[in-house]
Amino acid sequence: MSVTPMMAQYLEIKDAHKDALLFYRMGDFYEMFFDDAVAAAEALDIALTKRGKHDGADIPMCGVPVHAAEGYLLTLIRKGFRVGVCEQLESPAEAKKRGSKSVVKRDVVRIVTPGTLTEETLLEARKHNFLAAFSVVRDESALAWADMSTGSVQVMSLPQTRLGAELARLSPAELIVSEANAQDLRYLEEDFGIALTDLPRSAFDSTAAETRLKDVYSVQSLDAFGQFSRAEVAALGAVVSYIDLTQKGNLPLLLPPKQEAQNRTVQIDAATRRNLELTQSMSGGRAGSLLSVIDMTATAPGARLLEQRLSSPSRDHDLIADRLDGVSYFVNHTALAEDLRSALRAVPDLERAISRLSLDRGGPRDLGAVRKALEQAGALSQLLAAQDDLPKSVSDPLTDLQGREHILDQLDEMLVAELPLHVRDGGFIAPGAHEELDEARTLRDEGRSVIASMQQKYQSLTDVSSLKIKHNNVLGYFVETTATHAERMMSAPLSDTFIHRQTTANQVRFTTVELSDLEARIQSAGDQAQGIEKALFEELRHLVVSMAAELHQTSRALAALDVLVALANLATRENWTRPIVDDSRSFDIVAGRHPVVEASLKRQSGDEFIANSCDLGGDGDAASIWLLTGPNMSGKSTFLRQNALIAILAQIGSYVPAERAHIGSVSQIFSRVGASDDLARGRSTFMVEMVETAAILNQSDDRALVILDEIGRGTSTYDGLSIAWATLEHLHDVNRCRALFATHYHELTVLAGKLDGVKNATVAVKEWEGDVIFLHEVREGSADRSYGVQVAKLAGLPKSVIARARTVLDALEKGSREGKANPSTIIDDLPLFSVAPSAAPTDASETSPVVELLEEIQPDDLSPRDALDLIYKLKAASKA
Which parts of the chain are coiled coil (predicted)? Predict the structure, then answer.
């Protein structure tokens, strides 16, 4: 069977975009055919129908409305699809001029991928959407990343062994790699939830990339932006080429690339980020993370900047001090800070509005966002300019808030207050802003009143009060009346005036020469007004895009102030303190608290968090390690994590949850906390533990902060003990770092007497009538045992199991004291298979007369006299 012209066009376009679902524009719908339709119908849960035949078989078809397409696009992108948006490039009327059977011209105007989203509805407002590219040129490698929605572009050299850590930091939506090493990097898709896109090797050619970058930035040399390696140039070129490919040559505004150095930020690997839950909790959501607790920013760019700083704590002590000065200033000027927060709450997302306008995907509301952002920038500028002794981190942004008045004045003069979403909606240019537009609008709008007068005239002429003048897109303006009155209007003398147009089931429609002339004038005026508004929109759009660099500076300044004010508000509300951050080896935290756990306690029960101190300050370059013992559930892991989080908060320039904190330079943070397996890659829980421990021992330098929890617990007791012992010695003798080492191997506590940099610490507990009470206090010394049986009892294990565990534990401890090294010889002496197992011991609390009295009491029924009598009874019962 022959293929229809339309289907032939579809197949030709689809053949050029085989790796993407094709959204083929058909009037008010995007339609999909063949395998695309089957896949999309299943992914979107929409009806799968059919249209025509191909090779004798029905053609599967499904479609989505154009006006709701963004929601469907988001679903498809999240499910791993790429989508080619195929638009109509001319109207049906234009197509008919080439012949009655001509097909409307169509082509793909954009490939939608996870890393190239710009629409507001498709993006998370408070999170970057990075597109990254990893390149390898000979023995060099580099990572470049860009956010199309904001225009930021960055690059750094890094070995492939560091790629996972940087991807964990950036969380890009999509990673571009060369087809030459795509297979080796395929695991990144699952490990980091990144869409991996492989391109031909030519896309990573550094010579072609350099030429491409020079063209994009209109420069003769890239030296003005930095001294880039060949690998860095290749990675940047791949990012720009991919954006050009997916946007079909319509490049967005890209800011000059910034070179990032590894040694300027604290190095945190993927496992540590996961364990510390910096920006995401273990469950994968934002709730429960450190970011969720500290983010009090009022703007989307401010939230993105805070996440960026939290993901990349600084090692530049001058920069940290400047940030802390800014936070301190607003802590000490709370009224000013609140005024600034009020102004910041009204600031729209300027960066993303500029990006949409540069791609010609913006509308009047994006121009309105620029206007509103500049208005609020002016208000903030006035508030700050009136202050004295502004710190550098506040005065620098103030400079970038000023000098944009000419753009604001023009936007304010041209735009109405309430703006429509689309240019086609019209009505966004203010009255009086353009004389020719006002004239066209007047004619268009007055034409409507003339129509109303003409309707009254025709009602009088025909003596038909129900006669109406109506309009539709097919007939234009027409006179409508019922069939009953139509006969008179089609008879002389009225037939000379009213010309029959159409008869429907219940109505008859006419036109007149006078009505046709008026319609032509009104239509012309409406089209003229719409054309003028479109032209004025383009002028304003080009104005904004031409000033994009300055506007981006304003946006960054607003975000920087937002972060400072938000951190000051956090510090005031939560009673946090300013840390000392310097280049020393100090690590002295007094009464530190875990920010996330503390917030959770306040929210759920109102209980206070038990603060604990930690001093890892060593002598010179010697190691400083706390060996922490104590039972499970006592708070060891919380203590470990809180000190790492306090160090990170200090180095992003934030106040910290402590009474006092002195943090010497931390170059790396490593965490091995918790148990998990990696079955997909054939790794057991113990193997994962050992891989992560190996990374720590192989990479930690003497300025690292290491927290380790229960090393060696995934294997046999003696194997685990020996591994933990050797690991602790290596940290002390070779890495010479600061570390917190939690363990249940009490045998390790003897190392405090053998290694100068090791100190014993324990989490205090109290036993009461066979139960353990957690005090959550970290003290000097070591635990005498792990209280595992007591914790098991709290967990609800059957009483018979608890009793049996106590019997076995007593026998093992006795055998150990008597020098019996083999546990099997001790267990052999126990009645392991006795027919009648001994009953579980009865707790003393079950027969206590005091408890019996308390159980009978109804507190709400007690009078003051009854309560006093009860006290005497309880005292007597306690002596019984």
Answer: none
* Sheet containing 83-88, strands listed edge to edge, beginning at the edge strand earlier in sequence: 49-54, 57-65, 29-33, 21-26, 83-88, 106-112
The answer on pLDDT for 7 being more than 70 is yes
Distance, CA of 594 to CA of 645 (rounded, Å)? 8
Strand partners, 270: none
Single out the residue of 359, 395, 405 nearest to residue 109, CA to CA: 359
84 is in an annotated binding site: no
β-bridge mates for residue 87, sequence order: 107
Contacts of 748 (CB under 8 A, 6+ apart): 627, 721, 724, 725, 728, 741
The per-residue pLDDT for 831 is 53
Question: DSSP character for 508?
Answer: E
The domains of the chain, with CATH numbers, are 5-112 (3.40.1170.10), 124-260 (3.30.420.110), 295-404+547-573 (1.10.1420.10), 435-538 (1.10.1420.10), 576-779 (3.40.50.300), 848-879 (no CATH)
Please check if 595 is assigned to a binding site.
Answer: no
* pLDDT over 80 at 851, yes or no: no
Tell whether 634 is in a known binding site: yes
Contacts for 782 with CB less than 8 Å, ≥ 6 apart: 627, 629, 746, 749, 752, 760, 761, 762
Which stretches within 415-463 are classed as H helix? 435-462
For 538-558, how does the pLDDT look when each residue is reduced to its tens digit (9 = 90+)? Answer: 999 999 999 999 999 999 999
Cα separation, 563 vs 553, in Å, equals 15
524-527 contact pairs (CB < 8 A, 24+): 525/440, 525/441, 525/443, 525/444, 525/447, 526/440, 526/444
Q: What φ, ψ does residue 415 adopt, rounded to 5°? A: -105, 145
CB atoms within 10 A of CB 799: 13
What is the β-pairing status of strands 476-482 and 468-472?
antiparallel
pLDDT tens figures, 604-623: 888 889 999 999 986 667 78
Give the whole-angstrom CA distance, residue 663 versus residue 665: 6
Encode pLDDT of 613-655 as tens digits. 999 986 667 789 999 988 777 778 899 999 999 999 999 999 9
Residue pointed to by tokens 């695309």: 36
Residue 102: count of CB within 10 angstroms of its CB: 14
Provide the angle, in degrees to the nearest 10, between the axes of the packed helices 364-385 and 548-574.
Answer: 60
* Angstrom distance (rounded) from CA 532 to CA 427: 11
If you write DSSP's letter for every residue of 394-420 in order, what string do you get? HHHHHHHTSS-HHHHHHHHHHB-SS--
Residue 842, pLDDT score: 47
Cα(834)–Cα(270) distance, integer angstroms: 51
Q: Which residue has the tokens 């791609």?
A: 359
Q: Is 635 annotated as a binding residue?
A: yes
Distance (Å, rounded) from C-alpha 723 to C-alpha 772? 29
In degrees and rounded to multiples of 5, residue 687 shows phi and psi of -65, -45
CA dihedral 673, 674, 679, 684 (to 10 degrees): 80
pLDDT at 856 over 90: no
637 labelled binding-site residue: yes
Dist CA 474 CA 470 (whole Å): 12
User: Could you tell me which of 451, 454, 426 has the C-alpha nearest to residue 526?
Assistant: 426
**By the 8 A CB rule, do 415 and 364 touch?**
yes
pTM of the predicted structure, to 2 decimals = 0.83
Strands 49-54 and 57-65: antiparallel
pLDDT, position 292: 95
How many Å separate Cα 360 from the centre of its chain?
A: 25
Q: Which two tokens stand for residue 633?
A: 């559930």
Question: In the predicted model, is pLDDT for residue 692 greater than 70?
Answer: yes
